[in-house]
């Protein structure tokens, strides 16, 4: 399996902000999440259309693996992604803090304790709403198509996840959808969150956690409707195909079709009698009649497995040979009759002499 560096996104709820005497911000964050995520093929280094999406499954036993959770401890915090793993060469330019301690499971998420030390980064959190998190990590991708418990199909399974850094992102940048949102970026006051319903109308909800739940519920309903419509479309396609088949069958039973088919069967039987005289035919399918004739005329060949085109070509050749043989036999018969007639018409002595040679009679 190839190890690839990717960036995954979730969100954290800033309800436990504390500041040290040195002015550092200490806050827990939801950094990683189980379930499925969509990626572009180019993000995972896969062949094919680089912009084609693939679905990756992050099973709980991998996300909550002890070694994976331990990799959170000491991971650097960045503002946005540096475009590569944080390392000794870019550390001074990218790191604005770190994670203290290992990650820990929290429902579908992994929660970690962040310490943000850079004053500008703290200001971006407080004033510009950089409160969403995106995990930068390495992982291995196992090609494995399957379906999760909630019915989501996936193409790969993510394994051996190792965290390199969490990046602070502005609102709306999270990969995890509407759950990846700011919950409490203004601890001293309440904020109103606008939720767009499936009918297009927008309402404002004061509690952001409730707003997230409402939005997620609407998303699930929309997905259920889309899945139901897809199933209806699939069934309609089946019905349309059956209707087309019925139309073809009806056309095949029309008078002119019946007449044409009877002629085809009659012609096939007549020609087959030439190829295999005396054979009994138990089919009204011209091709099957040809197979039966060939099976008698050339029994060493397995005609059952041959294609229609092959059978028809072989039958035509056999028929032509039979016609040629019959023509030669008729030609010889006529020559014999003509010869006998010519001899009978000669003067009697000559005829008697000719006959005596065959009967060994003495003149």
What does this structure look like?
There is one protein chain. The chain has helices at 60-63, 66-70, 91-94, 119-128, 208-252, 255-275, 286-297, 308-344, 348-359, and strands at 3-11, 18-19, 25-33, 35-40, 53-58, 76-79, 95-106, 109-116, 132-147, 153-169, 193-196, 202-205. It has three domains: 3-184, no CATH class; 190-253, no CATH class; 257-359, no CATH class. It has nine helices and twelve strands. Residues 10-15 and 180-191 have low confidence and may be disordered. By secondary structure, the chain is an alpha+beta fold. It is rod-shaped, with a radius of gyration of 43 Å. The strands form two sheets. Strands 1, 2, 3, 4, 5, 6, 7, 8, 9 and 10 form a ten-stranded mixed beta sheet that branches.
Give the SSE map.
Layout lengths: L2 E9 L6 E2 L5 E9 L1 E6 L12 E6 L1 H4 L2 H5 L5 E4 L11 H4 E12 L2 E8 L2 H10 L3 E16 L5 E17 L23 E4 L5 E4 L2 H45 L2 H21 L10 H12 L10 H37 L3 H12 L4
Parallel strand pairs: 5-10, 6-10
Antiparallel strand pairs: 1-9, 2-3, 3-8, 4-5, 6-7, 7-8, 9-10, 11-12
Keywords: Coiled coil
Protein name: DUF2213 domain-containing protein
List key phrases describing it.
3 domains; DUF2213 domain-containing protein; coiled coil; ten-stranded mixed sheet; UCP029215; two-stranded antiparallel ribbon; rod-shaped; 9 helices; alpha+beta; 363 residues
In short:
By secondary structure, the protein is an alpha+beta fold. 41% of the residues lie in helices and 27% in strands. The protein is built from nine helices and twelve strands.
Shape: rod-shaped
What is the residue-averaged pLDDT?
78
Task: Work out the helicity level.
Answer: 40-55%
Count of alpha and pi helical runs: 9
